Each structure stands twice: as C-alpha cells, then as structure tokens.
Amino acid sequence: MNIGEVAQASGVSAKMIRHYEEIGVIPKISRSMAGYRQYGEADVHMLRFVRQARELGFSMPEVKTLVGLWRNKRRKSGEVKKLALEHVVRLEAKIQQLSGMSKTLKHLAHCCKGDERPECPILDKLDSP
Amino acid sequence: MNIGEVAQASGVSAKMIRHYEEIGVIPKISRSMAGYRQYGEADVHMLRFVRQARELGFSMPEVKTLVGLWRNKRRKSGEVKKLALEHVVRLEAKIQQLSGMSKTLKHLAHCCKGDERPECPILDKLDSP
DNA sequence: TATAAACCTTCCCATCATAGTAAGGTCCAG
DNA sequence: CTGGACCTTACTATGATGGGAAGGTTTATA
Q1: Range of the domain at B17
Q2: Is residue B19 part of a domain?
C-alpha cells in the first residue's frame, strides 16, 4: 500500500503518518525504489492504534511508549495498565478543573441580570483580586 | 508604573502584556519619552481581568470581546451573560468528552489483568476499528 | 507512445499562547 | 560616571496539525 491508501484505511492523514515516522512514534518504513513508503496490513493496525490512543487523549510521548508496548510481544500488561490509569488520573484532574470553571461561570451568570443595563457582576468579579 | 511593576501587580507577565497589546486584546498604551510603556491603576485592573478571563478558559477572541465590554460603560449586561453561558456550554461539552475518555479507559483497564504477561485488552482494543 | 491526472517526495510556512534569548537603550543609586 | 536593574524590539521555540510549492513517479487514456 502507498501512504494515501494506508491513510484512508487507518484514519490517519498522510501528513501525520510522515510526521509520526519523523518524530519516532512509529518506526521508519521501507521504501519502493522510487522512494515511496510501502505499507502492509499490520501498519494499518499500528496507525489505527495511534489514532485511537490520541483520541483517548494520550500525549505523543505516551503514544510512543504505547506503540512500543503494542509492538513488543513480551511486554507486561501491567505496564500498559499503569499508563492507562495514570492517564485516567490526569483526565479526572482536567475534568475537575473545567468543572470548577463552569461552576464559577454559572454562579456569576446567575448573579447577572443579563438585560439592557451595564451593571454586570461577571465583569466586576473578573477585575478584582 | 512601568511594565514590570504592572506585571507584578496584575499577575500577567511583561511578555504577555506586550503580546496582548500587539494582538489588540488590550489597547495600545502611552509611552514615556524614552519609549517605556506607562501604566496606571485602571490598567492593573484590566490586566487582572484578562488573566482571570483566561483562567476561566475563555479564548483570546472572547477575551478581546470581554475587554471591550469591560471598558464600555454603556454595555448591555445581557451580552456578557450570553458570552458566559455560551462558554459554559463549551466547557460542559469538553467535560463530557473527557469523561467519555476516562470511562472508556477505566473500563479497559478494569478488563486488563495488569500482570507480568503480555495479554492486554487495552492494546487489543486500540488497534481494532 | 505521449500526455495528463493522480499520486508521491521533501521542504517551508502558519497556527496559538507562552517563554526564552540577544542586542541595545534608559534610569537610578552609589 | 559607572554598574545594575530595568526597558525596548526582534527572533526562536514549543506541539500537533494543516496548507502549499516544486518536482519526481505511476497509471490510465487518447
């Protein structure tokens, strides 16, 4: 398969496939005589893996580690699980942060009449220490 | 006040104050004869406002709009409230998205033994379509 | 067989908010 | 008057992604 075909099949853009190769998230692939990258079925799976790890919010360094584990048939599943649970912790922290913002804003908005007049507790609150 | 002092007082770095001025989030400030930016008390409030709007997750274009409303004494509080509530909607959507990721990961991690062996439903799941 | 379309390659640029650095000018205290 | 702390602009980088240009390859069609 050429890069366009594997991009289609995996859902990762050709642009990003080259980028992932360049930064070492996926290994360098063999080339045709003309220099075209040549992919097989396993590569479709690998790229799909990368895409889905990204969709779960893993950082690029984590994805790189995960791809290494995915390719290593002697991996310990404990390592994978550890990464996953650490990521859950970060996700929950982010959720807490966003919930805090949302709560604050909802409270401020609730205090604001929201009419034609200029008085606005939202603006008032935002410039005080 | 010079930029360092107002940075200290507002909690916005001098670097970012110059940047905000350049991209028009805050108005251009007057200069001393030597070209130094000269700030007053109101500018401390304005910068604090920008910082706190950012901390609530508003985008830069939104902050720009909010600063405009903050400076406009004939604003309608309804406009501010509308922006705030739209942002709440986006925050809640983001929270839903992250919650989905977290839930998926927790489920996968729960299914993974997490021991010395290579079998791992997390990795298996991530390369399937 | 010639050519055009549809690929591929590398390289460069842009995003966005933020930080760092360098080179040079200014202000103040000793 | 000099040293240090401040200021100025301008350039660089980040990280994941997209866009485009210039040029080579493959394939289908006239």
Answers
A1: 1-57
A2: yes
Nearest CA in chain B to A123: B70
Radius of gyration of chain B (CA): 23
Contact A102 B95 (CB under 8 A): yes
Look-up: residue for tokens 């997750």?
Answer: B57
- Strand D footprint nucleotides (protein C-beta < 7 Å): 6-9, 15-19, 24-26
Total number of domains constituting chain B: 2
Question: Is B70 a member of any domain?
Answer: no
- Per residue in B63-110, pLDDT tens? 999 999 999 999 999 999 999 999 999 999 999 999 999 999 999 999
Q: Which two tokens stand for residue A115?
A: 């009419």
Categorize the per-residue pLDDT at B116 as very low, low, confident or very high, splitting at 50, 70 and 90.
very high
Token pair of A65 as six digits: 């580690």
d(CA B98, CA B92) in angstroms, rounded, equals 10
CB contact under 8 A, B101 and A74: no
